[in-house]
Amino acid sequence: MTGLSLGEKLFIQGGIAQDLRTDGRKRLTYRPIYVETGVIPQASGSARVRFGGTDVIASVKAEIGRPNPMQPDKGKVMINVSCSPTAAPIFEGRGDEEVSAELTVTLQRCLLGGKSGAGAGIDPTSLIVVEGKVCWDLYIDGLVISSDGNLLDALGAAIKAALSNTAIPQVQVAADTSGEDQPEVDISDEEFLQFDTSGIPIIITLTKVGRHYIADATMEEESQMSSAVSISINRKGHVCGLSKRGGHTG
What we know:
Layout lengths: L5 H12 L15 E5 L7 E7 L2 E12 L10 E8 L11 H18 L15 E3 L3 E13 L4 H14 L2 E7 L11 E10 L7 E8 L2 E4 L3 H4 L4 E7 L5 E8 L4
Parallel strand pairs: 4-6
Antiparallel strand pairs: 1-2, 2-3, 3-6, 5-6, 7-8, 9-10, 9-11, 11-12
Helix pairs in contact: 2-3
């Protein structure tokens, strides 16, 4: 995005102060949200989400693995975000690595909770097949195709939609396996379990411009922010995660 002139900055700030943003929205109104699932056939689950000019894809790959010896009753969940260098000018050079790392860490905090697992939206105990020996590993990848602000909310929505589209194959464990041997497993090609997304939160980011907070900020509005707070909330109204960041006003 090219630098804004003083007049453009004042126009954005003045509109927000009067509860009439440059695209006609009120301060707490989102842009139209479009969700499409099953966009990557070879993935276990996938979704594409668009908030105006922000366009992201999330995919889920489920693979059989072995639990961490320190957490034998839990499967593993890995989240990673990549930003296309063409998504926005700030992603050129090493900018995409910095933004990708920040988004990855924040999504992990919002969806996986703390180190103890407290507040986790994804229950890792539900991924266990045989305690201490066999589990499901979930690899969740987010890709930013185009950015016009509010990436965190869009990626959170895409991951939730992708997980709701995820089918975990039924697994049969050989009954005659005992002791320290790794059990033999038979993964079904026909029977699947739908992933439970009831505990997975949505992420809502409020961006402060001047004296007011706005929802679903565009990239131009984000350039004028002084701070932002992102809250992940589940369907029961419980806060699962909180993330704050500063900004610039110039």
